């Protein structure tokens, strides 16, 4: 199922929170206009990743500085030990869609 997460007006290297029911997602745009979707909370301590620093294809958790790869969800820097779930994202008609 594809979900409409809103307008594709994210600045490069920016994130946005998107809530659907009880679930929280994070939508990111990298420096090359790629769009990515992940679970919205850090796997270490449930902090919202949309507030983290986005650099190229990574996001850094704003609380304990774990770094996650936006393409794969893999942890690149601890203290997080568990990878993020990622979801396909696309831009269509000026809106960002994610497949969950």
UniProtKB/TrEMBL annotation:
Keywords: 2Fe-2S, Iron, Iron-sulfur, Metal-binding. Residues 2-98 form the Rieske domain. Signal peptide: none annotated. InterPro entries: Rieske_2Fe-2S, Rieske_2Fe-2S_sf. GO terms for molecular function: 2 iron, 2 sulfur cluster binding; metal ion binding. The keyword Iron-sulfur applies. The keyword Iron applies. Gene3D superfamilies: Rieske [2Fe-2S] iron-sulphur domain. This is Rieske 2Fe-2S domain-containing protein. It comes from Stagnihabitans tardus.
């Amino acid at each position: 199922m594809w979900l409409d997460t809103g307008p594709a007006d994210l600045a490069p290297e920016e994130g946005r929170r998107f809530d659907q029911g009880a679930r929280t997602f994070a939508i990111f745009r990298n420096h090359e206009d790629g769009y990515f979707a992940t679970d919205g909370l850090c796997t270490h301590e449930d902090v919202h990743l949309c507030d983290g620093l986005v650099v190229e294809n990574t996001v850094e958790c704003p609380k304990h500085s774990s770094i996650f790869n936006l393409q794969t969800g893999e942890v690149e820097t601890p203290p997080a030990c568990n990878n993020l779930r990622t979801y396909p994202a696309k831009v269509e008609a000026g809106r960002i869609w994610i497949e969950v």
